[in-house]
C-alpha cells in the first residue's frame, strides 16, 4: 500500500506540474460552475468525486451506531466529572502541542509546493495548508473540502490544481503515516495480532521504494518518484505531527486515567489511521472505537472525556479559526529582499529558437556546448533578474550542473551557493559534471569532493598542421579517404535532410538509439544553429559532422556515417572542419570530452558507471580517433558536497545519458 500511495502521489505531481504554469486562466475565472466543467475536461469529475464519499459516510454512520450502542452502558455523569478534572495547565499544554502538530502540517504543504515547482511562496502555501486541514478534518470530505479552501487561499491556483495538490498531500501523508505507525508498532508492545508482520511488510515496501528512487529502472521512467530527501522530509513531518497530536491527547487525560506517553501515541496513530481511512468528519466513530479497543486497560468514561477535550482543542478550535481565515481570504505576502533575489531553475521547452536573453548568453558562453540548451532536457539556473548562470537538470537524487558557468564574469563562489540553495529547496544534492579546472577548484575550496572523470581535447585551428609523428595515423586515414574518392564540403542552406535522416537512423540501429543529456543527438530542427559538413562518394551522402558554434569556440557535436563508409571518412570531415574554422579566425575547436581510462583506487560506483559509459559511447574508439589529431588535453571533473552525493550524482548522470531520447525526422 505504501508503494502504491507514493506512486499515486507522484503521478498526481505530473499533472499539477503540467498545469501549474496556467495560473492566469485559473485565476481569471474562478466560478464554481466553471471549475466543475474544467475538472471534467481534465479527467476529474468533482461531482463523481463527491459521490464516492458516500461509502465512507455510510461506514461512519455504522461506526457511530456501534459506538452509540456501546454508549448505552456508559455513565455520562462520570464522563462529565472526568472532563472537569482536566486542569487549565493541561488545556494549555494540549494547545501548545496542537500548534506544533499544525505547524508540521503546514510545512507538509510547503514541501509539496516545492516539489512541483509552484511559484507560491512558502508562507502562503503553509498558511493555506494549515487552514485547509483545520477545516477539512472537522467537516469531512477531506480532499474535496481542503481543495476548496486551498483554492480560496491561493488565488494563483485553479480549483483543479488545488484538488490535485490536496490529493498529493493526502496520499503522501497516508504513506508517511504507514511508515511511522509501523516503526512505532515495532518499538511499542501492541495487543493487535499480526501487527509485527504487517509493520515489517510496510517497512519492506518502503525500503524497496527507496531503492527504486535511487536506481530508477527504465520501466519506471515515466513515473516521477520523490527523492530520498523528499521522502525523509515527509516522514520527519509526519512523525512530528502525529507525535505532537498524540501528546496533545495525552496532556488532557483526566484524573484516574493513567497511561504512559508512548503506548498512547501508538494507539493514537492506529486510531488516526482508522479515522483517515473512514473519511468521516474528524474520523468520528472510527477513531473512538479503535482507541477504546486498543486501550482496554483504561476506563471508557475517562478516556472518552479525554477524547472530547482533545477534539475541542485539536478540531473545534482550529476549525473556528480556519473558518475566519478562509472568510477573510488570502493575504498578500511582502517579498523580502532575500526572497526576491532567490535563484531559480527555469525549464526550457525543446525548441531551436531560445528566448532572446538565453540565446545571447549561449552565443557569449565560454563553451559552445551551451547549445545543448536547445535540446529541451536542460534547464538554466538564473539570477533574480533572469540572467542565465549555468546549465542544470534535476534527476533522481541530484541537481546536475553541466559544464562550466555560462559566463567567465560569474563569481564561482556565489554560483556554488546558488546551486546549493536550489538543490536544497528541491530536496536534491548538487553535482557538478564535466567541470573545468577553475570551476572544480572553486568547489574544492568550498569543501566539496572532486574526482577527475574525463578529458577534453581541443585544437587551435589557426596553428593546426598535419606535420609531426603524432599525426601519422591521421595522415594515413586521410590518404585512404582521398583514395576512396570522398568529396567533403560544408552544407549550405538546403540540407539533404532525407539522406542525413537515413544515416542517423542506421547509426541509431547499430548503437541502440540516441543518447541524451550531455551527448549529441539527432535533432534536424536544430541544424540551422550548427555548422554542418558532408561527405559524399559518387554523389551519395556517406557521412556528416556537425559543430556547435558561438563567439568563443566551435565544438564537436554529431559524427554520423554509414556502416559501409570508406575508412577515414570522419577523419576527413573533421580535418576539413578545422581548415574552415581556421579561415573564419576561430582559435579554439573542441573535440568534446571522452571518459578517462580506468583509474586506480576510484570508488566502486564510479568504476561501474565509467565502464557503462565507455560501452554505450564507444569511448575506446573515440579516444583513438581524437588522439589522431594530437589535441591539447584538459581534465574535467565531477564535484559534490560529499562522497555519497558523488555516488548518487554518478548514477543519475549515467541514467540520463543511457536514456534513449526521442529524435526528430
Automatic annotation (TrEMBL):
<feature type="transmembrane region" description="Helical">
    <location>
        <begin position="303"/>
        <end position="325"/>
    </location>
</feature>
<feature type="transmembrane region" description="Helical">
    <location>
        <begin position="128"/>
        <end position="151"/>
    </location>
</feature>
<feature type="transmembrane region" description="Helical">
    <location>
        <begin position="163"/>
        <end position="188"/>
    </location>
</feature>
<feature type="transmembrane region" description="Helical">
    <location>
        <begin position="50"/>
        <end position="68"/>
    </location>
</feature>
<dbReference type="GO" id="GO:0016755">
    <property type="term" value="F:aminoacyltransferase activity"/>
</dbReference>
<dbReference type="GO" id="GO:0055091">
    <property type="term" value="P:phospholipid homeostasis"/>
</dbReference>
<dbReference type="InterPro" id="IPR051211">
    <property type="entry name" value="PG_lysyltransferase"/>
</dbReference>
<keyword id="KW-1133">Transmembrane helix</keyword>
<keyword id="KW-0812">Transmembrane</keyword>
<feature type="transmembrane region" description="Helical">
    <location>
        <begin position="89"/>
        <end position="108"/>
    </location>
</feature>
<dbReference type="GO" id="GO:0005886">
    <property type="term" value="C:plasma membrane"/>
</dbReference>
<dbReference type="Pfam" id="PF09924">
    <property type="entry name" value="LPG_synthase_C"/>
</dbReference>
<feature type="transmembrane region" description="Helical">
    <location>
        <begin position="265"/>
        <end position="291"/>
    </location>
</feature>
<feature type="transmembrane region" description="Helical">
    <location>
        <begin position="194"/>
        <end position="215"/>
    </location>
</feature>
<protein>
    <submittedName>
        <fullName>DUF2156 domain-containing protein</fullName>
    </submittedName>
</protein>
<dbReference type="InterPro" id="IPR016181">
    <property type="entry name" value="Acyl_CoA_acyltransferase"/>
</dbReference>
<keyword id="KW-0472">Membrane</keyword>
<feature type="domain" description="Phosphatidylglycerol lysyltransferase C-terminal">
    <location>
        <begin position="372"/>
        <end position="639"/>
    </location>
</feature>
<feature type="transmembrane region" description="Helical">
    <location>
        <begin position="227"/>
        <end position="253"/>
    </location>
</feature>
<dbReference type="InterPro" id="IPR024320">
    <property type="entry name" value="LPG_synthase_C"/>
</dbReference>
<keyword id="KW-1003">Cell membrane</keyword>
